C-alpha cells in the first residue's frame, strides 16, 4: 500500500560558517535527512496508527532528528518536525470509512444491549420490592390509573389483579 505524507521541518542556523564551508547545500542536507527519518519512523506503523496519532509521530520524528545531531556539523539545528497531512488512495479511504461505520454500529448495539440489561435489572428489583410490600403494588396501580385518567382517552382499561380473577372463576 502506497501512501504519501506531507511533513514540515523547522530548522535554525546555529553556525553560518559551518553551513557554508562544510556542506555545499545545507538545506538539501536537512531535507534528505528529514525524509529518510520520516520514512524510517512511519514505515514501522500500521496505517490506522499513522492516521490516529499524527502528533505523537511528529514528536517522535523531532526527537529522532534532534538526537542524531547529523545536521549540527552543517551549522544547522533541527528544531521541530511535524506531519501535516496523509494522502491515501480513495478506495482505501472508502474502505476505512465503511470499517469505522461498522465499528460505530457495533458499539451502538452493545450500548443498547447494556441499557436493556440495566432496565431488566431495575424492573426485577422493582418487582421484588412490590412482591414483598403489597401496598407498594397498590400505589403503583393507582399511579397508573391516574396517568391513564389524565390522558384525553375515550376508554379506560381497568385491569384486575390475577388473584381476584382466579377467585371469581372458582
From TrEMBL:
Gene3D superfamilies for the chain: 6.10.250.2090, Band 7 domain
A family per Pfam: Band_7
Listed GO CC annotations: plasma membrane
Record InterPro entries: Band-7_stomatin-like, Band_7, Band_7/SPFH_dom_sf, Stomatin_HflK_fam
Membrane-spanning parts: none
Record domain Band: where: 2-116
Top-rank taxon: Eukaryota
Family note: Belongs to the band 7/mec-2 family.
Stated name of the protein: Band 7 domain-containing protein
